Each structure stands twice: as C-alpha cells, then as structure tokens.
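Review box. Two proteins, two foldings.
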Amino acid sequence: MGPGMRRDTLDYHFGDYNWRKIIQLGNSLLKKMTTATSDVAEHVIAHRELESTIDPEQLRSWMEAMTAWERDPTQPNPYEIAVKTPTQAAVRRQLAKEKGKALEAGIDVSLSNEAFPEDADKLPLGSLSGSSNHSS
C-alpha cells in the first residue's frame, strides 16, 4: 500500500465516522433533551434551596447587577472575580522586607542553623551525622 492509498483509506474511514456521527446527532440531542427536561424540577428545587441560604439583601444586589449586565454588557460583569491577587514579585519583595527586618532584629531566619552551603565543600561526606560507609 503506497502513501496515497494509505491517505485515501484513512479519509474514507474518517468520512464514514463523521457521517455516522451526523446521522446519530438527532437521537443524541433527543436523549439529552429528555434527560434535561426530566431533571428540571429537581434542579429548580435545588436552586431555591440554595437561594434560601443566601442573605436576601446580598442576593437582591447580585440579581440587580446581573440583570444590569445582561441589559448592558458595558456594565461590570458579576461573574468575574474582582479580587486582585499579588504578583510573584510583590510576594518576594514582601518576604525580603520581612527577612531584612528579622535580620536587623538579630533573629536567625535561616532554614537550618547547621547547614551552610558555602561550607559544604569543606566537609567530608563521612562526617555528616547519621551517614556511614554502608548502604544499609
């Protein structure tokens, strides 16, 4: 089988699959619509129960914001979260400030007071606590 025949065979298989998928689209959509209409009452009850747990004033203000946004999309979108999160650079800057204040106060901020990377090359491997020459 040459490359052209291989491509044609794949095209026939893909075309057949897509044709069967389109033919079954009506049955698939009917099944999904039947499931959705049978579950609508259950979902309405669940939605009402959820609304009953929310503060009525907060719910009213959110509904007003939602309807205003639906009428005029230039209004603020109530579905978008408006909380600003700090950037990684801002977090690092804050941590550096805290570390600087701790060092000025004389507080040891190192992760371990026994580990100094600059002295690691001077220590023989056998002198580390808990290590031995044996693997077990």
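Next protein.
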Amino acid sequence: MRFVLSSRGEIKVTERRVEIDPDATIGGLVRQLKEDSTRLLRNEFKLAKVEIGENIKAGAWGVLWLALAFGVGVIALVAVTIALASGIGKLANGNMWVGAIAAGVLEIGLGGWLVYLGMQTFGKPSYTLGESREELVSTKGWIERQRGG
C-alpha cells in the first residue's frame, strides 16, 4: 500500500503487488525489509504532516468562530444593559441614572455569582499528588505480581 499526496491536498492510496522470490537470500530479505521499513516511515511522516495541517486548519476555524461569538456576545450584553437601564429608569419616573445604577448593581451581582460558581467548579482538584503516588505504587505492585517477583 502506498500513500500519495495529490496536488489538491488529497491522500490517495495505491496498492503495490508483493512479488515472492523463492531464490531470495537472507541478505536480500534483510535489505528488502530495510527498504520497506524506510518507505513505511517516510509515508507515515507524510501522513502525519497532512494530518497536522488539517488539524491546524480546523483549529484556526474554531478560533475564528469563537472570536466571532465573543464579539457578538459583548454587543448583545451591551444592548441588554442599555435596555435594562432604560426600562428601570422609566419605572423610576424618568430618572435614568437610577436605572443605570440598578443595572450596574445587577450585573455586578451576576458577575460575582458566576465567579463564585467558577471557583466552586475549579476549586476542587480532580486528583491530588498523593493519590497519583498511591496509584503508581499500586501499579508497581501489580507489575511485580504479574512478573512473578
């Protein structure tokens, strides 16, 4: 099997027939094994390069969409803040400053609550160094038992 990279960036797989020579020597077989191994490594490196390029391209598109979503989110939050401040200001007999302060206090409270939730989520480690060491000792013991030592 042979991997060929086309001009359009596609990978094509071609098949190569294996010829069996009944008069082959050990030296010839070793030489052929070396050549086949070298070819296999070259093809694996080519394939890895293509896959890395595709992964980088996919990652770049992901970052682009994430940045776009962030920008749209910021604009939406500004619009909601203005609408909230205006609505509260109208309820306060046209005192827009009251609406702006109330909207600010609400957003600060919401931000504090989100920070609290984040600290709760990331505050507890999923594993500790001590647990990792215990697991390594356990694994070492298992390996020794498997070896019979």
